[in-house]
Write a structure and sequence with these properties.
The chain has one domain: Rossmann fold (3-Layer(aba) Sandwich). About 30% of the residues are buried. The protein contains eight helices and six strands. Helices cover about 50% and strands about 15% of the residues. By secondary structure, the protein is of the alpha/beta class. The termini are close together.
């Protein structure tokens, strides 16, 4: 079973466009096509960003749906401690959190739209790919 870290931008984007690629990735996760890995830092960022007024303004999900999703992330995902400390993404150290989560969770993929992460392409055998490319991989499973 694939183990995957989804960047916060993918998780939040799923709430904005119910038919978009990120939403399709979340549907695949809910169907058990892959295991999602999160860390405390990733969860906290998700919880904070998803309730930003500018995000809520465009969200296709109700507050109840968002709260359910957050609870689902907390209960169903593989949780890592987020204790490693490394400087990996030189142009955006905040992105290190995703790589650290992937290392701790022994992920196969990091799925992101963030150029700083995507430029790395791989890190310690963890592939860093776009949502569209990940969706193609899921369709081949």
């Amino acid at each position: 079973m694939l183990k995957v870290v989804l960047d916060t931008n993918i998780l939040v984007s799923a709430t904005l466009s119910p038919k978009g690629t990120p939403a399709q990735i979340i549907k695949a996760w809910r169907k058990g096509k892959f295991k999602l890995i999160i860390s405390p830092g990733l969860f906290e960022e998700m919880e904070r960003v998803i309730f930003y007024p500018k995000v809520r303004k465009y969200s296709a999900w109700s507050e109840e749906e968002i709260n359910y999703f957050l609870k689902e992330l907390e209960q169903v995902s593989i949780k890592t401690p987020g204790r490693l400390s490394s400087r990996i993404v030189k142009n955006d150290p905040a992105d290190d959190m995703f790589i650290i989560t992937a290392i701790e969770g022994k992920a196969n993929y990091i799925v992101s739209g963030d150029q700083h992460l995507l430029q790395l392409k791989t890190y310690e055998d963890i592939k860093i790919i776009t949502p569209a490319n990940f969706l193609k991989i899921l369709k081949d499973l």
